[in-house]
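Recap for those who missed Tuesday's class. We walked through two folding examples back to back. For each one, the amino acid string is listed first and its predicted structure tokens come directly after. Nothing is annotated here on purpose, so try labeling regions yourself before you check the end of the notes.
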Amino acid sequence: MTGAITRRFGTTRGMVRLLLSHAEVALRQASIIDPDPASVRRLVFVCHGNICRSAFAEGLARNLGMNAVSFGLSTSSGLGAHPPVLEAAKVFGVDLSGHRTTSADGYAPEPADVLLAMETRHLRRLASLPELSRLPRTLLGLYARPRAPHLHDPYALDDAYLETCLMRIRSATMGLATAFPGARPCG
């Protein structure tokens, strides 16, 4: 049972957070501000350190021809992607060798941005930042199939969960292409 939990959720805490996130979303307590799909021109992926989840999502979205950036809520700018993620991303055709972290302070909001967080606690943090609190924000995992409103951080976890996490992010990012067609630059 422990192996299945590790592979599917990363940790027992990851499984519990996923269950709680489903409840938060269902009860409308997740600090989501629904975006107007027609007005979105840029996808902004947000996580804790901008070295795993948001970095991969940005790289994948760009590969799919979408206008995308990412930042971390608790990082400094200029760091590279986490080496295991850098290697695992290659399997998905995503080259993160040029990725450099961006901190929340280094992110320059644009009016047609949608913030796509990995966890409900990220949404709460975004809601507390005056310069970002009014931007549309939601959970990336809500666009995955099946829906996964909590994308547990794979940092320092085993390779099996890292693959699961990246697969969920891939599924969700592919869903964004349909949900936000205006995020594809013209010509």
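Example two. Treat it independently of the first, because the proteins are unrelated.
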Amino acid sequence: MKDHAVSEVMTKEVVYLPAETTINEAAQAMRERDIGDVVVTEGPTLAGVVTDRDIVVRAVAESRDPASTRIGEIASRDLVMIDQQASTGQAADLMRERGVRRLLVCDSDRQLVGIVTLGDLAERLDPHSALGDISRQAPNN
């Protein structure tokens, strides 16, 4: 099986939302774009990532009001990045090592150029696996 560059499998459309955005607004943006994560910014700085799972675990399960809770309050602040020229094998290893399901992808100047998820890797590297099959399916929303 050929090892591909992360840039070949990553999602290039990154959605940025300010830390002041409410959870409701972030969830609506995720639904409209059929994505599971947004990058949180504080001014020009990358401040974190919020996933659909973060919304459930850190907000809904804690009975936080989604209309008033800001995504900056629930964001994962530990940003795990990988160079776009790294191999998909290196990306899988980094995910395993850091216990994450997505990596921010940067260029040689450390500018964000995409996001690669566990599903992206499964689709490309093991398309006949259950995760690869599921990742290719249209959303059921």
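Answers for example two:
The CA atoms of residues 11 and 103 lie 11 Å apart.
Confidence is low (pLDDT under 50) at residues 130-137.
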